[in-house]
């Protein structure tokens, strides 16, 4: 018909598949700004929005909130319509506008005519919901007479049909009874059906398509009086129950009704008189109750099967049983503010009251709008938690102070827990709040000040966002404040009562004393992508990352405790559970090079992986620390820790492991440039080999653009950096520049601090122990991850410096003693050993020459040194050019010709420096018995080939040395 339609709803989800041209706007009509957006450019408004439901929602404790919300929406819309020049306005009113007295107990059906609203004295609609609808009708009439707004009003009587609410307390009686009947049928137990009231109350019910037809006719008519839109065929709720059992495919004859007279039941009798609407519009309902219920039953059953389909037998039975019960909905959302307070550990006992006063002021300041909002009805209840032996506070001083501030809903708990056991206080107060029916629970402290208004609605909105994004029950998740005193750390998490339901009223396990509970909750829900940190800020003037008022007791909860909680949460979620793989990136950094760290911190995982970055700064004096914290410290997925002093790479990595709670860890050097897909590719290999000890990434180097960088390649000291391209599985070890491994196994394996702070051998030792433990436990070794690529720049920008290789080898020489099973005797000295021997001989001959003035031995020693270097260079050139040219033919370098030969020669020097460092390390450690032994870098994984090749190389070099030295000595 050419109409442009805009649909506005507070919920982002709908059972309806909207046509493509239809515009959708998600927002709250209690916010006038949303109303203005909604009616901009609109000529006709159809106002169906309302806080409503069946008797589970429209009951006494919700009435005032319903009135405020619904009337607030109408007022906002009318203001917006006047500003936008809207021409026509349709109001969805309700049969609840009719007075109670004609609908009181009697044996006859009561048919309600439009004029009955005003009969029998002053209007007396059903509750505040009905009063608001009647007030809305009157307001529209008055407004239209002044403004000329063309109005239409329809009073609906119990509309039902597919795609309406059918569970969670918002549904009306047809959908509620159909849900129970279908659940009974699927359970195979159709004996009993729950009914609110005594079942004698009578109602008429209208099929949704008939209601839509009535609205269409009304909009096209000249009728501006309210019309009743309903059926004139009433049935008792008992009869409706039998109809639902029949239409759901059950046996009505076997039905037994369980009457719950304690629940809301509504009026006794209500039926629509359709004479007026028939006269004005020619409308009559065309669908029988039985036909409509049959169609609705098919839709509800299909929706129910979507939920229970993936469940196992036990979960399916539990879910179906829950569908057989209706619930009363409380619209007000209550936050439990758990507030332990103590007069101990302060300069004066009264200081705690001063802190409490500041907290109370911040609580009032940041919640005033939320507690007075028209739509989302929030309230808070403060649970003061006081030690039983705190004599200063035992006389209700704290509660009195709060009441003087204007905080009225307070519960004081006197707890007999050991001093400093804050987590025990948390558990006790949380359980009490849960039993009191609070919706959200947050542990605060008397040193906390809330900084931002609106935190309650932000928390509630974030939980709703989690439910929508993850398709889980509302309440699943953990939402943390932004703590300005401890940025990026989830120190004040908020959890929903659903968490308490899952864990039987226990907010955190008993193992926690006064540390770790906050991050435990955050990491627990992180595994389901249900942990969030909101911008709402607070500051904690006591505790945080600094000293607390009590002795800290840290427990290691990141293994069995976290896994046990995860398993329980996953079992409760059932088919809702979309478990994420958790991976922490650990980067020790001494140089704090922001450009390189930026590349790492900008990596993105896939939607099925949760990643946290843990940066350990090993130079507390680095000027870049402040800038790094400024740029990334606010991110909940980035944790920056600064060592108090330079501890070295191994100890920094160990600290990173202690900070981690993920299933897997990815170790990166702080100067690598990872490929953008590094995390995605890493997740792929983890999922492909979940039983592996870990994965060795592919660490590449840039193009060799000078002789030195080419020489490093010839020296072979970077052979294992890209080992993932050479061996597919059971790789002996990988460099920590790009290494992944499983963390959530209590194997006790960390980086051994016996190795040098600058590195050398610790990665080999770590991988060997990790592999042995995993294989010994029935797992697999390290797999190659050739697509997990990171590029490591050339050290010192490719400029000449050999010390790094010397120190590496000095450290990794310790492996010979640690792993004798992976060592072997070579039978001949290598170039480094011969060079060191020659140098020692040179020193001795110089001393001898200085004493005797006989320098001939010194010249012999000098010739020996020259011989070792020349022989080593010649042998390496021979191997690179003639013996094994295939090993270097694909080297990525711009160096050719004579430079190629020079690079080979320098490569020999680098190799000799490396070997020399290894010998020096053995001597310094006084491991003299290991001189002449070699470590098998392949740990036997590829057979004896590498050992045989090393032996041959040493023999060949020794032979050439002897020949050259003999020639030199002969000519002398």
Automatic annotation (TrEMBL):
<dbReference type="Pfam" id="PF00535">
    <property type="entry name" value="Glycos_transf_2"/>
</dbReference>
<feature type="domain" description="NAD-dependent epimerase/dehydratase">
    <location>
        <begin position="23"/>
        <end position="221"/>
    </location>
</feature>
<dbReference type="InterPro" id="IPR001173">
    <property type="entry name" value="Glyco_trans_2-like"/>
</dbReference>
<dbReference type="InterPro" id="IPR001509">
    <property type="entry name" value="Epimerase_deHydtase"/>
</dbReference>
<dbReference type="InterPro" id="IPR029044">
    <property type="entry name" value="Nucleotide-diphossugar_trans"/>
</dbReference>
<dbReference type="Pfam" id="PF01370">
    <property type="entry name" value="Epimerase"/>
</dbReference>
<feature type="domain" description="Glycosyltransferase 2-like">
    <location>
        <begin position="603"/>
        <end position="692"/>
    </location>
</feature>
<protein>
    <submittedName>
        <fullName>Glycosyltransferase family 2 protein</fullName>
    </submittedName>
</protein>
<dbReference type="InterPro" id="IPR036291">
    <property type="entry name" value="NAD(P)-bd_dom_sf"/>
</dbReference>
<dbReference type="InterPro" id="IPR050177">
    <property type="entry name" value="Lipid_A_modif_metabolic_enz"/>
</dbReference>
